């Protein structure tokens, strides 16, 4: 099964993708994570992407589509969760080609609907494990034992440089201007399912599971 999780910054795409990966063995394809890894490693892609990401703008279609193309075969037989991709019409077209070349297709495009005002709080409170990447939140999802990652037991955490209020506002306007307009393309093909992203993490998970299980 191949699905897209679509929604504005902070909607909970990464949270749900990580869960699906752990519980269903699907593979998370997050272009944001791939770009952050490239920035950290100082690759040519990372050098190009760094300032764009810190400004909250979109990295070029060619770069992100190539990143997905390089990794797509890892999801063969397991199923892909596209998280933060596609974000423009060009990227949607590129994904169509990449999947089609492999005899694969999209099963669902899951739009996570949220109230934008809540997103600033979600994003500015977010942090993650510096070792394994597990996601946490100052108010909504603290580690079970203070200062210790639930998943790997390590003690170092980090915050993203683009998780400040000004950058979040730019990321939201990029979403409205460039990403939300790709929804009608998937709607015409009957692929779009909506979930209430304002519910708790567990309730959002149940709504997504119902879609994947064909309920
Ligand atoms: P990317 O990494 O994709 O970031 P984003 O889309 O802005 O999404 P986020 O990761 O901020 O949010 P999320 O929806 O995953 O929410 P999360 O689950 O973490 O992109 C970053 C940048 O990279 C872009 O700005 C761009 O520059 C570049 N880029 C990436 N992909 C690109 C592409 N395809 N094309 C061009 N450029 C690209 O949740 C947020 C917080 O809320 C967490 O702390 C979580 O614990 C909490 N939370 C989650 N769900 C709930 C809930 N139901 N209730 C309460 N709290 C919750
Ligand atoms: Zn960890």
Automatic annotation (TrEMBL):
Keywords: ATP-binding, Cytoplasm, Kinase, Metal-binding, Nucleotide biosynthesis, Nucleotide-binding, Transferase, Zinc. ATP binds at residues 10-15, 126, 199. Pathway: Purine metabolism; AMP biosynthesis via salvage pathway; AMP from ADP: step 1/1. GO terms for molecular function: AMP kinase activity. The keyword Transmembrane does not apply. AMP binds at residues 31, 36, 57-59, 84-87, 91, 160, 171. Zn(2+) binds at residues 129, 132, 149, 152. Gene3D superfamilies: P-loop containing nucleotide triphosphate hydrolases. CDD domains: ADK. Residues 126-162 form the Adenylate kinase active site lid domain. It is an enzyme of class 2 (transferase). Its EC number is 2.7.4.3. Residues 30-59 are annotated as: NMP. PANTHER family: NUCLEOTIDE KINASE. NCBIfam families: adk, PRK00279.1-2, PRK00279.1-3, PRK14527.1, PRK14532.1. Monomer. Catalyzes the reversible transfer of the terminal phosphate group between ATP and AMP. Plays an important role in cellular energy homeostasis and in adenine nucleotide metabolism. Belongs to the adenylate kinase family. This is Adenylate kinase. It comes from Sphingomonas arvum.
């Amino acid at each position: 099964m191949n699905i897209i999780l679509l929604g504005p910054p902070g909607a909970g795409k990464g949270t749900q993708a990580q869960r699906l990966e752990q519980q269903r063995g699907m593979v998370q394809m997050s272009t944001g994570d791939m770009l952050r890894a490239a920035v950290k490693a100082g690759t040519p892609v990372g050098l190009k992407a760094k300032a764009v990401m810190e400004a909250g703008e979109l990295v070029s279609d060619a770069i992100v589509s190539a990143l997905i193309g390089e990794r797509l075969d890892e999801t063969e037989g397991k199923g892909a969760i596209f998280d933060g991709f596609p974000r423009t019409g060009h990227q949607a077209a590129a994904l169509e080609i990449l999947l089609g070349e492999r005899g694969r297709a999209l099963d669902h495009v899951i739009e996570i609907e949220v109230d934008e005002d809540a997103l600033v709080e979600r994003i500015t409170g977010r942090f993650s494990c510096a070792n394994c990447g597990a996601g946490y939140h100052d108010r909504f999802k603290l580690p079970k034992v203070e200062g210790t990652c639930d998943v790997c037991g390590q003690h170092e955490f980090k915050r993203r440089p683009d998780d400040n209020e000004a950058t979040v506002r730019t990321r939201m306007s990029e979403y409205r201007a460039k990403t939300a307009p790709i929804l009608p393309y998937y709607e015409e093909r009957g692929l779009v399912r909506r979930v209430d992203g304002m519910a708790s993490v567990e309730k959002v998970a149940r709504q997504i599971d119902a879609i994947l299980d064909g309920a």
